[in-house]
Amino acid sequence: MDVAGETARIRAALRDQGDAERAEYEQRYLRSGLLHYGVPVPAVRRTARSAARTRDEVLALAGALWAVTEDGRRVHETRMAAIEVLVRGTPLLEPADLAVAERLIRDSASWVYVDGLAEKVAGRLVLRFPPLAATLDGWVADPYLWIRRSALLALLPGVRTGSPDLDRLARYGDALLGESEFFIRKALGWVLREHSKKDPAWVASWVAPRTSRISGVTLREAVRHLPAESAEPLKAAYRAG
Predict the structure, then answer these.
(1) Which of 2, 72, 124, 159 is least surrounded by CB atoms within 10 angstroms?
(2) Chain segment 197-217, per-residue pLDDT in tens
(3) Is residue 241's pLDDT more than 90?
(4) φ and ψ at 67, to 5 degrees?
(5) For position 146, what pLDDT does the model report?
(6) 102 Ramachandran zone, left/alpha/beta (phi>0; psi -120 to 50)
(7) CA-CA distance, 10 to 140, in Å (whole number)?
(8) Taking a C-beta distance cutoff of 8 angstroms, is the pair 10, 67 a contact?
(9) Is the distance from CB of 157 to CB of 129 less than 8 angstroms?
């Protein structure tokens, strides 16, 4: 595959689909300093379907798309395309490639890039190669909030496929329960919410002794799918605590 040519093709196709009004709105909404073309996510995904067929091609194309600049700025849509290339190519990736996901997460400053990398790249790699979960133990204590968020979101593939790492979910929850960062609180709530769809009793029993310390954001997400007989006592204990 001609990586430079494929990068140029994807970039040009994204630019051609841009909408200035949408670009301005997205930039405000995301508080972004990147250049935005204004392309909807489904269109980015379609455009990012590439000829990459090997691990090396996937990594090279994703890296090239991530690095695109225009007018001295990185480009939002090519970064989203890079993530899509990695997500589609995840079955080709190897354990060492978790470091690629981490590098891109560290080069991100928004959930809009972090969440796909954390769940659909890092999380799927951890699910395929369980020893990689030890890396998440370092992430959960990392100074960078997006790496801490990623430690939680990387647990989602296991939760969704019925192979949850409950030991890490419990430990990470306790480690991050006192977080003041909204994006960490929300992520913890999301993972608990997803697990509650399969095992509501576990989530209720984990939340119950922590209602005096859990944040409102985390609690609201965690109890969203619990039966009323479990959710209402937890919410009452939170209000009282």
Answers:
(1) 72
(2) 999 999 999 999 999 999 999
(3) no
(4) -90, 0
(5) 98
(6) alpha
(7) 35
(8) no
(9) no
Residue 51 has pLDDT above 90, yes or no: no
The secondary structure of the chain in percent helix, strand, coil, rounded to multiples of 5, reads 70, 0, 25
Is 35 in a helix, a strand, or coil? strand
pLDDT in tens, 17-37: 999 999 999 999 999 999 999
Among 19-23, 47-51, 124-128, 158-162, which stretch is predicted with the lowest mean pLDDT?
47-51
Q: Which of 153, 98, 159 is nearest to 129 (CA)?
A: 98
Contact 70, 29 (CB under 8 A): no
Backbone angles phi and psi of 232, in degrees to 5: -65, -45
Residue partners of 154: CB distance under 8 A and separation at least 6: 118, 119, 122, 123, 126, 136, 139
